Automatic annotation (TrEMBL):
Protein's recorded name: Olfactory receptor family 56 subfamily A member 3
High-level lineage: Eukaryota, Metazoa, Chordata, Craniata, Vertebrata
Main localisation: membrane
Domain of life: Eukaryota
Keywords: G-protein coupled receptor, Membrane, Olfaction, Receptor, Sensory transduction, Transducer, Transmembrane, Transmembrane helix
Membrane topology, from the record: Multi-pass membrane protein
GO BP term (any one): cellular response to lipid
Gene3D superfamilies the record matches: Rhodopsin 7-helix transmembrane proteins
Matches recorded under InterPro entries: GPCR_Rhodpsn (IPR000276), GPCR_Rhodpsn_7TM (IPR017452), Olfact_rcpt (IPR000725), OR51/52/56-like (IPR050402)
């Protein structure tokens, strides 16, 4: 029991309950199958891509190292979110402990920010490849990948750390039901008895600083790439240049489109069902993860050949 300043008593919660589509139970039934398939596809395809890049010496190049990092981030995000959602759908395992909830919150925020930052570094890689092809081997080196990876880790680990810390320091008394399938920061913080203005401001400022700056730099990179491509006069040069960065552009489109739809739906939440942003939030952790390795596997000849060689060796 906790005594408040106004003299009232309330019972502190020991864990949270994830209220995942309880208003529409049928959603749980028809969502469980496609979500399971997307989860298996995401983990399986990204694992295959990681193994292929690891074992194929011809793929030991900076761009594929960055792609490996992206696959690793996707696997962690899927494993952090989807198994718990499926456990709720199948076995009604809605309780989640405080430490597990805040850990999930941190991993989601941190790894999504790292994924966005990885896209930004890959956009720079494509910019150098198209706009400065002769200097590409001297600029985009293994050492560059190591420094870029350290930057991705340091920036996002430190910048997103205050999010779960601020939420964990709040007092949770009385209400413990999270109106979400996952431990999203504001879904958890609004259950607190304390003022959550700082949490709200940091989530907003941190999100737009990290993701916003990445998207601006990605847009700038592709603007410069498009300008350089339009200046090419050799026959077939434009198509070749665009195909070089086509896969990467499609991946960014998947990532940013779902994120944009989620933000717009959240802003217009009075006009849509409150379960729609929750659904988009869950799908944002699995759809890009499932499509990323497929797009690169289909559109990149080196990866297709590497997978084919591994399959022949296995047979």
């Amino acid at each position: 029991m906790t005594m408040h300043r106004n003299g009232t008593l309330s019972t502190e919660a020991s864990d949270f309950l994830l209220n995942c589509f309880v208003r529409f139970p049928s959603w749980q039934h028809w969502l469980s199958l496609p979500l399971s398939l997307l989860f298996l596809l995401a983990v399986g395809a990204n694992t295959t891509l990681l193994i292929t890049i690891w074992l194929e010496a011809s793929l030991h190049q900076p761009l594929y190292y960055l792609l490996s990092l992206l696959s690793l981030l996707d696997i962690v995000l899927c494993l952090t979110v989807i198994p718990k959602v499926l456990a709720i759908f199948w076995f009604d395992l809605r309780p989640i402990s405080f430490p597990a909830c805040f850990l999930q919150m941190y991993i989601m925020n941190c790894f999504l920010a790292m994924e966005s930052c990885t896209f930004m570094v890959m956009a720079y890689d494509r910019y150098v490849a198209i706009c400065h092809p002769l200097r590409y081997p001297s600029i985009i080196t293994d050492h560059f990948v190591v420094k870029a990876t350290m930057f991705i880790l340091t920036r996002n680990v430190l910048m997103t750390l205050p999010i779960p810390i601020l939420s964990a320091q709040l007092r949770y008394c009385g209400r413990n039901v999270i109106e979400n399938c996952i431990c999203a920061n504001m879904s958890v913080s609004r259950l607190s008895c304390d003022d959550v203005t700082i949490n709200r401001l940091y989530q907003f400022a941190g999100g737009w600083t990290l993701l916003g700056s990445d998207l601006i730099l990605i847009f700038l990179s592709y603007t410069l790439i498009l300008r350089a491509v339009l200046r090419l006069k050799a026959e077939g040069a434009v198509a070749k240049a665009l195909s070089t960065c086509g896969s990467h552009f499609i991946l960014i489109l998947f990532f940013s489109t779902i994120l944009l739809v989620f933000v717009l739906t959240h802003v217009a939440k009075k006009k849509v069902s409150p379960d729609v942003p929750v659904l988009l939030n869950v799908l944002h952790h699995v759809i890009p993860a499932a499509l990323n390795p497929i797009v690169y596997g289909v559109r990149t000849q080196e990866i297709k050949q590497g997978i084919q060689r591994l399959l022949k060796k296995g047979c």
